Amino acid sequence: MTQQRAQFATRLGVIATTVGSAVGLGNIWRFPFEAGVHGGGAFLLIDLFFIFIIGVPVVCAEFIIGRHTGLNVRGAFRKLAPGRPWGIVGYLGLLASILILSFYSVVAGWTLEYIWQSLNSFGGVTSVEGLHGQFDSFATSDWRPAMWTIVFLAINYLILARGVQKGIEKMSNIMMPLLFVILVVFCINSLRMPAAAEGLTFLFKPDFSQVTPSVMLGAMGQAFFSLSLGLGCLITYSSYFKKETPLLRTAGIMAWLDTMVAILAGVIIFPAVFTFGMEPAAGPKLVFEILPSIFMHMPGSMMWSVLFFILLFLASLSSTISMSEITIAYMTDEYGFSRRRATAYNIGVAMLLGSVCALSFGSLSGWTVCGLTVFNLFDYVSSNIILPVGGMIISIFVGWVLDRTVVTSELMTPGSGVKPWMVKAVVICLRYIAPTCIGLVFVCGLGLW
Ligand code: TRP
Q: pTM for this structure?
């Protein structure tokens, strides 16, 4: 490859894009509904364990591989372990990224519908029941959800085809700080609701009698999903990092901000769930039914609602862009496709699969595998199976196979302030703790043992 690889221009750009990848529907839509389904406080605690004890070291592992090789997932493993089967992570990553992109785009499409609905003041409906009914009739309808999924993916195409710095970095720099501010405003609003205390108790008070292997598996899947971990998404992004970027610090900041956003989302959602007498275990529709009811009770409801859904849409966009980048980098690096052509293939396949996912709430709701609709199946298989397996292989690879001098030199870049004990801690986690925990939760959660 003679062409010089693109790089993120600034330090802020690195943080904004990696946080942009991590923060998205995973935090604001998936975290509250999974926590709701799995009993609240205990789920949060296990999620935090997986984010900070397992997640941060595995994020570092992806960063090490990506920055060291400066290549896409497949190329990176081929360079580091030629002729050996480690590159399977690359293929798993490519598969899972397209599955995630497909169902994720459906939910991102819902945000577009809700921007539209907010501009129309939800057709004048103000009652909580009416708003809930509205979501149901929209999600189960035949063409609107599929249409929005396709619109959303088309917007992805336009941004991705422009390339790394111009498209991805610029958008994230502006959007992420704005999202934070608005979440804090909504939090304050929710904390003043009548059932705030009940909501917070549900979210923060762990009830360990609720912890089952499937809750553990759900929390592990959530942690990996939320950190964009296990598919090589972060390998791809870190291949655009500069040599000076401090990897451990970037991983830490990313995990913190990501966790903060998920917790803020929980603090916004659960007081409202209890105030409006809803069932916390409502599943994927939870957040979309609750949010409009929250806004309706705020002064200036339309403005808040439009602003919020625009930000949620942008946060989704910065995440889907990072998913697509896995395949695009692969096709351009390995097969010499032009960026435009690679993007077109990736987005085209996602439009097809995404439409099936969109219809799986309505006319295709009868298509099920093991009781899961196509939408739920894509989510379950990718988040609870492929991401943890990918994360486990990556941690074993960096912990046991990769030359230790590479690990040390990548983590201890000049000025990063990383001490030798920190490198040791990361390595111990990658060698022993992460593979054991992931393996155990995985085997028990799937009921294989
Ligand atoms: N982390 C993102 C979110 O929380 C989703 C995401 C982006 C992702 N890239 C990924 C998940 C790669 C798994 C793998 O919304």
A: 0.93
Q: Judge contact between 42 and 208, C-beta under 8 A.
A: yes
Element at 297 (helix H, strand E):
none
- Residue that the structure tokens 């692969």 belong to: 330
Provide the H-helix boundaries in 245-403. 247-275, 286-296, 301-335, 339-359, 374-379, 387-396
C-alpha 129 to ligand 1 mean position (Å): 32
Helices (H), 84-195: 88-119, 128-139, 144-160, 170-191
Tell me whether residue 258 is exposed, middle or buried, using C-beta atoms within 10 angstroms of its C-beta: 0 to 12, 13 to 18, 19 or more. buried
Report CA(20)–ligand 1 centroid distance (Å).
9
220 DSSP assignment: H
Q: Which of 54-63, 172-181, 212-221, 340-349 has the lowest mean pLDDT?
A: 172-181
Does ligand 1 come within 6 angstroms of the Cβ of 26?
A: yes
| Whole-angstrom distance, CA of residue 233 vs CA of residue 231 | 5
Nearest-CA residue for ligand 1 atom 12 is 228
Neighbours of 406 (CB within 10 A): 15
Mean pLDDT of 254-269: 96
pLDDT digits (tens, 9 = 90+) for 5-34: 777 767 777 888 899 899 999 999 999 999
Q: Which conformational region is residue 277 in: left (phi greater than 0), alpha (psi within -120 to 50 degrees), or beta?
A: left
Rg value, the chain, Cα = 21
Report yes or no: 159 and 167 within 8 Å, Cβ to Cβ.
Answer: yes
Distance separating alpha carbons of residues 442 and 431, to the nearest angstrom:
17
CA distance 59 to 57: 5
pLDDT class of 2 with cuts at 50, 70, 90: very low
Closest CA to 103 of 316, 399, 334: 316
CA 192 to chain centre: 29
For residue 404, the CA-to-ligand 1 centroid distance in Å is 29
How far apart CA 316 and CA 321 sit, in angstroms, is: 8
Contacts of residue 388, Cβ cutoff 8 Å, sequence gap at least 6: 220, 221, 224, 230, 438, 441, 442
